[in-house]
Design brief:
Largest sheet of chain A: 7 strands, mixed
Distance between the termini of chain B: 40 Å
Order of helices and strands of chain A: EEEEEEEEEEE
Structural class of chain A: mainly beta
Number of helices of chain B: 0
Oligomer: heterodimer
Number of helices of chain A: 0
Largest interface: A-B, 26 and 23 residues
Chain lengths: 115, 112
């Protein structure tokens, strides 16, 4: 059982380049999330999807877009990367659709550096 | 705004001693709390949770205490082991919320 899988694990971009982080879960969860983690700070929510076909902004959505491709997959796109987006990105999932039920299950993270 | 914070950014304990990690939360409407452990280079892992209708919950070597009066959460780890070295986060889920709000984390170092 793979759980939550993120790709790529590492990426270096130049300012202005675009890229997409991929996330897939095999637990049949309804809700999926993208967080970013910066040194000395907790995880901050970028976007979430409570169910297939819906997405909503979190605390820090500027500079990002998301797509809930199907129930399994939730991608995060940086259209024009900036150094301030250098961070570790975590995808997570949760069974509940209407609200969170139980814990979040996290992927291993994607470390992004923008030069 | 809503926030969850930790009193100490780092904590060092001797192997075999008990550890106590504290957390303050600000949203009195939060009704569900989780402690996560994050080892270097990995994603957060669930340790234990507690709902607001409880004051205490015990797991294997871990206990979470919830004081709603002062909006305080703590994680107690008994007989701390080297494998407990990690960053610990508390997270709160506001009532009917879609997501969790995370604190900044406490780094626990276990000394031999």
């Amino acid at each position: 059982n793979a759980g939550v899988t993120q790709t790529p694990k590492f990426q270096v971009l130049k300012t202005g380049q675009s890229m997409t982080l991929q996330c897939a879960q095999d637990m049949n969860h309804n809700s999926m999330y993208w967080y970013r983690q910066d040194p000395g700070m907790g995880l901050r929510l970028i976007y979430y999807s409570a169910s297939e076909g819906t997405t909503d902004k979190g605390e820090v959505p500027n500079g990002y877009n998301v797509s809930r491709l199907n129930k399994r997959e939730f991608s995060l796109r940086l259209e024009s990367a900036a150094p301030s987006q250098t961070s570790v990105y975590f995808c997570a999932s949760n069974p509940g659709g209407g609200r969170v039920t139980g814990e979040l299950f996290f992927g291993e993270g994607s470390r992004l550096t923008v030069l | 705004g809503e926030s969850v914070g930790l009193h100490l950014p780092t904590l060092s304990v001797q192997e075999g001693d008990n550890s106590i990690i504290n957390c303050a939360y600000s949203n009195s409407a939060s009704d569900y709390f989780i402690w996560y452990k994050q080892e270097s280079g990995k994603g957060p892992q669930f340790i234990i949770d507690i709902r607001s209708n409880m004051d205490k919950r015990q797991g294997q070597r871990v206990t979470v205490l919830l004081n709603k009066t002062v909006k305080h959460l703590s994680l107690q780890i008994a007989a701390t082991q080297p494998g407990d070295s990690a960053v610990y986060f508390c997270a709160e889920n506001p009532a009917y919320g879609q997501n969790f709000v995370f604190g900044p984390g406490t780094r626990l170092s276990v000394l031999p």
